[in-house]
Amino acid sequence: MAERKRDDNGAFMKRFELSPSPQSSPPPLHNLSFAVKDIFDIAGYVTGFGNPDWARTHSAAISTAPTVLALIEAGATCVGKTVMDEMAYSINGENKHYGTPVNPHAPDRVPGGSSSGSAVAVASGLVDFSLGTDTGGSVRVPASYCGIFCFRPSHGVVSTSHVIPMAQSFDTIGWFARDPITINKVGHVLLQLPFGTSIEPTRFIISDDCFKLLGPLGEHISHILVKSIESTFGSHLIAHANLDNYIEEKVATLRNFIDITSIKEDSIIPALVASRYAMQLLQRYEFKANHGEWVNAVKPDLAPEILERVVNALATTDDNIDNCKKLMVELRAALTALLGDYGVLAIPTVPWPPPKLNQSASQLEDFRAKAFRFLAVAGMSGFCQICVPLGMFNNLPVSVSLLAKHAADSFLLSLPQAFYHALREQADAILGSGL
């Protein structure tokens, strides 16, 4: 069992300190502290992957992940490793071996996973920022549940070297912070961007069909967006769209998956459900290739819901895998055409409200399926996405997500700073007091 402390809301697996070397002038992340999900290699420590059997059967890392080294070289101090869901195969944030990190803004709710400890460490004020990974939603979900910022970069633009893979077609490095300035600073280091650049958006597209699924809260968020965009950039940038209809019309390969999913479930957003299905199918296939041999040899002790997903992954064949990959190419092209170079797509991050602790497996699975309808948009397109906290509604955190085309990370990173004050002003007026 890893070293644990009771005063950290259960966020940390192990505490240590990796400090930057002295520099002649203050670096960009000077005096900032951060933590890393226990999926990143740190030289001299075993990378635990959220499971004691994994830790037991693997040796200490001999090298540190380049992303971690880059942050230290930029002046930040790494203070430890954080709890994660087993094998990164959940978005709940519960771990039967190491405990569930406490969501500081909603202690009776799950913190979200699989980067649960990293999100809780930031939300609790224990560190200035933290690193996680996001394959299906493992940074975006806990950020939304815990009321903090996160950034999922465009697929492939930040190195995943010395990070345990889950499914390479989707794996990304993500980061958390409590404010837009810090999320931006960290992003500039990891994306190797020059500071001081910002580009104004050319349009904001609000996905009315997606926000409608949140009921009255969705209407509130849409209204908050409209008012804050109008006051900051002008009403001429605002457009409304039925995202599901657009995707179904423009992505031909989706029809194969709509036919499959329509048999399994009745949905008012069939294209997004089908995209979710394709994403999960490809993730299972790649997870099997990465870890199937180890699972079969070790037979690790896994929580029942994790075990069920792993078993399903190990039973996956290559049927439809080529179509999954083709769908990704078509979806990226379709959404790029919709947004253009500097357009922004606004969608819910997850359904609402966050699940309560100790819910049944069937309840959590239902919520998970609904969440992936939104999460699959960036996952299947490879687009960058930022989760922006809006405050509290009925004493629970609320967020919105903004997406931009692949490789428009610099543009999207700087965007919240331009109108976050207006967003929070509108949110506080409409939703009530903020975080």
| Second rung of CATH, namely the architecture of the largest domain | Alpha-Beta Complex
Instruction: Give the total of domains.
Output: 2
**CATH T-level topology of the largest domain:** Amidase signature (AS) enzymes
- Discrete helix count: 14
Strand order of the largest sheet: 1-3-2-4-6-5-10-11-9-7-8
**Strand percent estimate:** 15-25%
Helix content: 40-55%
What is the radius of gyration?
20 Å
**Which shape, going by the Cα principal axes?**
globular
Low-confidence stretches: none
Q: Let me know the average pLDDT.
A: 95
Secondary structure: number of strands: 11
Distance linking N and C termini:
34 Å
N-to-C series of helices and strands: EEHHEHEHEEHEHHEHHHHHEHEEH
User: What structural class should be given to the helix and strand makeup?
Assistant: alpha/beta
CATH superfamily placement of the largest domain: Amidase signature (AS) domain
Family: Belongs to the amidase family.
Domain Amidase: 23-181
Organism: Vanilla planifolia
Protein name: Amidase domain-containing protein
